[in-house]
Amino acid sequence: MPARLPTPPPEPEPEYDEPEPEYYDEPEADSNDEGYQSEDACIRCHSFAHVDEHAALFPRHTVTSIRQLARDLTAPFPSETEKARALFFWLHCNITYDPATAESTLRSGLAVCDGYAGMFASLAEFAGLQAHKVTGHGKGYGYAARTADEPVPPESSNHAWNCVLMDGEWRLLDACWGAGALMGDAYTQRFAPVWFTSTPAEFGRRHFPTDPSYQLISDEDGGPVSWEDYIMAPEGPTVYGDFHTLDFLQDLLQPATQAIQSGGWVSFHIFKMCEHMSRAEADNYVYFISIGDTKTPLEVNSEGGWSANIYVPRGTSGDVSLNHVTKIDGRDAKGLSVQVFKNSIGRKSMAWGGMCKWTLI
Predict the structure, then answer these.
(1) Cα–Cα distance for residue pair 112/302, rounded to 1 Å
(2) Cα 219 to the center of its chain, rounded Å
(3) What's the whole-number mean pLDDT along residues 341-360?
(4) 26-47: per-residue pLDDT in tens?
């Protein structure tokens, strides 16, 4: 990618359908006090807690102008990545998704995704960042995957996000989906930092920009992706928020398909988002596959992740789920060993959370 994207000439805003927010939960913020240094740190595992704590000090009702807000939010931070994170987190804290109101975002505290993206771009400009509002299609709430025998639908636009230059690298972020998600019919304000740290390929699974240059995927990496490849891509397993909260990488989740064929051995694999993240027992939970009443734990493998090979009898139906043990006998289960988990099944009370789900066929 060039050092800076060309700034397009002004043009009328495209018409697109009413945008929708993301539809599943996302991860919480982590914490430490170190500053971000793009040359020797990984944005995936770096903690922005000090930035988030500062951004939370400026509730919307105290703000007098967007210009002053941008300065207040970003003044303490030397890097563009930290400045962008402060804007991203402030929007989560202070703006709520409301399909009925798209104007006066600062005054009302309500916005659709176009309002989030537009306000982020305005704050970024006053903060000295180069940021663009990007419009296109988002696979958000209400999206249903197409089957291979269905015709390719015409390209459409229903969403908006941002492309931001951070410390020499263009990155994509979605402040709307980062702020919260629809839980049933209700919008829940819950921070989703995955939409600040996603790679262009990960981001592109659920976003398709009208201008293909905003995919940020080079020819060498298979870009740009066509509308047909994007919209007709088969759905993978259903991934829940805890999968991201626990810092796992969806791109390496196996099986990668939604459906699992019964009548044979199935290999399950999960990997952390980056190599810097701990796989030590003390820093993790027990992750297990549930098929009916059978619970099979995943164990650390030689490839840097967790895996389990499970035989699924022919004719078995229903769902297969990946879970993590959250509590055992009412206590936090982080650090629980696989052996203690096996010995505790049916003997001790356990609680668990869902990470993802497949369907047996």
Answers:
(1) 45
(2) 25
(3) 95
(4) 333 333 344 555 444 588 888 8
Assess if residue 37 is contained within a domain. no
From CA 192, how far away is CA 239, in angstroms rounded?
14
DSSP-based three-state secondary structure for 72: helix
Boundary (domain end) residue, out of 191, 209, 235: 235
**Which position has the token pair 């298979």?**
222
Residue range of the domain that includes 260: 245-360
- Please tell me whether residues 72 and 196 are part of one structural domain: yes
Q: Are residues 307 and 193 in the same domain?
A: no
Of the listed ranges 74-78, 84-88, 248-252, the one predicted with least confidence: 248-252
Query: Phi and psi dihedrals of 307, rounded to 5?
Result: -150, 165
Same domain assignment for residues 217 and 89: yes
E strands, the chain, in order: 96-97, 110-111, 131-138, 159-166, 169-173, 180-183, 186-189, 207-209, 238-239, 259-260, 264-270, 287-291, 294-297, 299-300, 306-312, 318-328, 331-332, 350-360
pLDDT digits (tens, 9 = 90+) for 156-169: 999 999 999 999 99
Domain for residue 5, yes or no? no
* Helices (H), ranges, the chain: 49-55, 66-74, 80-94, 105-108, 113-126, 175-179, 194-197, 200-204, 227-231, 241-245, 338-344
CA distance 159 to 174: 10
**Can you tell me which residue has the tokens 């009925």?**
100
Q: Are residues 73 and 220 in the same domain?
A: yes
Cα-flanking dihedrals φ and ψ of residue 252, to 5°? -105, 10
CA 314 from centroid of its chain's CA atoms:
35
CATH number reported for the structural domain that contains residue 251 in this entry: 2.60.40
Where residue 216 sits, what CATH number does that domain have?
A: 3.10.620
Q: Which of 356, 325, 324, 323 is nearest to 256 (CA)?
A: 356
Same-domain status, 184 and 274:
no
pTM: 0.77
